[in-house]
Amino acid sequence: MSDDRIWHPSRLLLALPGLVTVLLILVGSVPIGAPLVGPVLPAFGMIAVFVFAVQRPDLMPHWLAFLIGLAQDLVTGGPLGLNALLLMVVQAVCAGQRRFLVGRPFALAWAGFAVIALPAALAQWLIACIYFAEIVPIGDVMLQAGSTVALFPFVAAPLLYVAHRLGQEQPA
């Protein structure tokens, strides 16, 4: 009998990126009160998808990014499919560019995330405008993007630790 078919408790660790990302989405759905601007919802799920798609793309496949985005849409009450689409695109871009990000200084990963998060926020705003058939205030979207990029080091550092503890990418 092949050893691949035997279930072992260590295989449960392979579900950790998805579970942690869903937990971050739940935490991120609680508004952070920002003085003078109102509630802000940082995109913690996008940070997790970015980190795991770069570090362990085998544990953050397209379908998982889609399901996580769908869960985020359901939790936040946003247009159904919006975050699912965005997180799939983020996953695809990160997995495709990982050779430029793996093993590089943390500041480069942070800059890489900003390069992905800001256009994703603009795409989110554009899709929301089309969905609601009106111009949605862009300030809220940019505040979300800015707070997400600013909080990246605090969220990504523990995620990077988890990704490194899970070991190297397993060949298909």
From TrEMBL:
Pfam families, per the entry: MreD (PF04093)
Keyword flag Magnesium: no
Gene Ontology biological-process annotations: regulation of cell shape
Domain of life: Bacteria
Residue ranges of the TM segments: 12-30, 36-54, 107-133, 145-163
GO cellular component: plasma membrane
NCBIfam families: shape_MreD
Protein name: Rod shape-determining protein MreD
